[in-house]
């Protein structure tokens, strides 16, 4: 069989539908869950700024919670929070919930 050149190979890795990543609920990968303490939070939005998955829910520059559908549990939000308002806990603590 003749070897194909790069011009003969079908183009791959194309995203032809904007926003398609919403379909991939990356939260299923999580082994640690960030728990937000609203009483400690000063709405500095550092967690929102640094979250790699846009999983911090904010409205009008105020934190409103964490979107567990997409949060992968990396712990960045807890690491950058200046008020220790986010605690990382094992997912096993929540077995049987939601
Ligand atoms: S644990 Fe990681 S992915 Fe989840 S909200 Fe915090 S920074 Fe975002
Ligand atoms: S980093 Fe901490 S204090 Fe700042 S908005 Fe997030 S949870 Fe609140």
Q: What string gives the helices and strands in order?
A: EHEEHE
Shape estimate: elongated
Total of DSSP H or I helical runs spanning 4+ residues: 2
Arithmetic mean pLDDT? 93
Instruction: Give the radius of gyration.
Output: 19 Å
Major sheet: arrangement of strands:
1-4
Q: What structural class do helix, strand and pairing data support?
A: alpha+beta
Largest sheet: 2 strands, antiparallel
Any guess at the CATH architecture? 2-Layer Sandwich
The strand count comes to 4
What is the helix content? Answer: 10-25%
Low-confidence stretches: none
CATH topology: Alpha-Beta Plaits
What ligands does this structure carry? iron/sulfur cluster
Domain 4Fe-4S ferredoxin-type: 32-60, 61-91
InterPro entries: 4Fe4S_Fe-S-bd (IPR017896), 4Fe4S_Fe_S_CS (IPR017900), PorD_KorD (IPR011898), Pyruvate_synthase_PorD (IPR053389)
Pfam families: Fer4_21
Protein name: Pyruvate synthase subunit PorD
Describe this structure in words.
With 98 residues, the protein is an alpha+beta fold. It has one domain (25-94): Alpha-Beta Plaits (2-Layer Sandwich), CATH 3.30.70.20. The chain has two helices and four strands. It has helices at residues 46-50, 76-80; strands spanning 32-36, 56-59, 62-66, 86-90. The strands form two sheets. It has a two-stranded antiparallel sheet with strand order 1-4. The longest helix has 5 residues, at 46-50. The mean pLDDT is 93. Residues 36, 41-47, 63, 80-81, 83, 85-86 line the site of one iron/sulfur cluster (SF4). This is Pyruvate synthase subunit PorD. Heterotetramer of one alpha, one beta, one delta and one gamma chain. Residues 32-60, 61-91 form the 4Fe-4S ferredoxin-type domain. Its cofactor is [4Fe-4S] cluster.
């Amino acid at each position: 069989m003749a070897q194909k050149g790069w011009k003969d190979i079908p183009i791959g890795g194309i995203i032809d539908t904007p926003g398609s990543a919403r379909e991939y609920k990356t939260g299923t990968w999580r082994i640690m869950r960030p728990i937000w303490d609203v009483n400690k939070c000063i709405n500095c939005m550092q967690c929102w700024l640094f979250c790699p998955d846009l999983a911090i829910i904010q409205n009008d520059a105020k934190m409103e919670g964490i979107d567990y559908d997409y949060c992968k549990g990396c712990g960045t939000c807890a690491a950058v929070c200046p008020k220790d308002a986010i605690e990382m806990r094992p997912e096993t603590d929540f077995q049987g919930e939601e």
